[in-house]
Design goal:
- The complex is a heterodimer of chains A (93) and B (397).
- Chain A is α+β, with helices and mostly antiparallel strands.
- Chain A has one domain (26-91): Immunoglobulin-like, CATH 2.60.40.
- Chain A has helices at residues 2-16, 20-24; strands at 28-32, 36-40, 45-48, 52-56, 61-74, 78-91.
- Chain A has a six-stranded antiparallel beta sheet with strand order 1-2-6-5-4-3, with no helix packed on it.
- Helices cover 25% and strands 46% of the residues of chain B.
- A five-stranded antiparallel beta sheet of chain B has the order 11-9-15-21-20. In chain B, strands 2-3-1-4 form a four-stranded antiparallel beta sheet. Chain B has a four-stranded antiparallel beta sheet with strand order 10-12-8-22, with no helix packed on it.
- Classes of the chains: A alpha+beta (93), B alpha+beta (397).
- Strand 5 (61-74) of chain A pairs antiparallel with strand 2 (36-41) of chain B.
Amino acid sequence: MGKLRQQVSKWMMQNLELPADVVMDLPRITMIGQLHIYIENHRGVKAFSNEQLTLKLKQGTLVIKGREFVIKTILPEEILLEGTISSVDFDDV
Amino acid sequence: MKSKWNNKLKGYVRMEIIGQDTSSFINTCIQSGIKIWDIKPLDSEHVHVSISVSDIRKAKAILKENKLKIRIKEKMGTPFLLKKMWKRNGFILGMASFIFVLFLLSNMIWNINVIGANPKTEYELRKAALEIGVTKGKFIFLLPNVREIQRQLTEKMGNVTWIGVTQHGTSYQFEVVEKEIPKANPTTGPRHLVATKQAVIHSLFVEKGQPVVTVNDYVQKGSLLVSGFIGKEKKPELVSAKGEILGEVWYETKVEIPLNTSFQTYTGKFKNKHYISLFGWDVPIYGISDGEFQDKTETLNETPLYLAKWKMPVSYLKKEIRETDGVKRSYTKAEAIEVGKKMAKKELLKKLPEDAKIKGEKVWQQKVSNGKVKLTMLYQVIENIASEQPIPIQQGE
C-alpha cells in the first residue's frame, strides 16, 4: 500500500508538476550561505550540540555539521538554524 | 520577526537546561506546542533556551519528566521590565511628577501685560480680570477662552472702548483703547479780571462779569478790567469773571547789525587721522597726510581704554581735519535795516504768547556807528491782557 502511494506521488510529481516536498513529504531545505539553514518538514530533533544537529526526517536523518550552532526558531515542522554551516548530510537508516 | 516582538511584549525567560537528554526535551516541547527559541548548546550538558513566560509551567513539568534541571538566567520583556521599574518606583514617580508639574506649570498664567492703559485703568482692568479669574497662577485650561475673556472684560470696563486679549503661551496680553472723556472744566472761585500790562483796549469779549472798561480805554498794569461783582449795587453777587480782553500793547526791540561780518564755513572736505596713544606718545596708524588744506580746523577725539575701572595708558585717537573757507558778508545800510527788522520781529515773536497778533511796526530810531546799524523798532501788538485775580471772600457776612 505504502509503496503504491509512493509510486503514485512520484508519478504525480513528474507529470503534474507539483512540488516534490508537498507531494512526497520531503524536507525543503533553504540555506543562506553558511549563515542560515531553514528546514521545513522535519520530524523532530534527534541530537543537538554546538557543532552538530541531527534531525529526524520521514525517511532517515539529516545531519548538519558546523560551528556555533543556535536554533533560532523551532516549530513542529520547521527549524531555523544559525551558525557556520559546513556540511549537510542525508543518512538513510 | 513578528513573533519576536510578541515575545518581548509578553515577556520571556532565558534559562539554562542542565542534563543529558536535551534534544528530547526540545521534541516534547514542540509536540506539546510550547514555543522555544534561541537554543544554544554550551556543551553536552548545558543548553541555553528562551521560553515564553506563559509556557514556563508546562515546560517545567516536561523538564521534570526528563529529569533535567533548570536555572533561570535572564528575565526579559515588558512584564519584567515593568516589575523592575516598579521596584524603582521612586524614580518613576519622580519622572511622572516632573512631567505632571511641567504640564501644570506650562498651563498656568505667568504674566499679564497691559498695554495702552493709564495706571488707573490698568488697576481697574487687573481687578476686573481677577474677578473673572485671570490672574497669575491660574490654570489656563480652567479659564474661558480668549474671546470670552475679551467680551467679559469689555463688558465690565465701562471707561474703555476696546480691550484686545491675546494669549502668548503662558502670558496674557491686554491691549486697551481708552475712551477719551472730555475733561470737565475746573470750577473757579469768584474773581476779577485785571490787566497784565499797560495797554489800550482793542476789543472786549466778556462771558461773565461786569466790564468796567470800554474800547480805546488806556489801562495800567493791574487795573481792573472786568469785575466779579454783578447785580445791584446794594446786593452784589459774586461771579467768576471770564472773558477775553484784547489790548494794544507797544513793544520796543533793539537790534544791532554789523555791516561787515566774516564767517568760517566748512567746505565739506575732510581727512581723518588715526593714532594710538601709548604713554603719551601718539603713534599714527592710518592717515598720514594733513590734507594740505589752506584753512582748517582740527578736532581730536580720544577714546581711552579701560580695564575694569582703571584707565589704561593706551588710548585711541582720531583727529578730524576739516577744510574751512573764510566768507565775508557785507550789507549796505538799507539791507542791514531790512535784516535788522526781520531779526527784531523774530525776537519779538519769541516773547509773545501764541495768540498775539502784530498789528504794525515802526522804525523808531536808526543809527550807524562803528560799522554797525543800530535799530530800535516799535511794534504794535494785539494780545490778551486779561488775567484772573481772585476775590477774597469776606467772612461773617
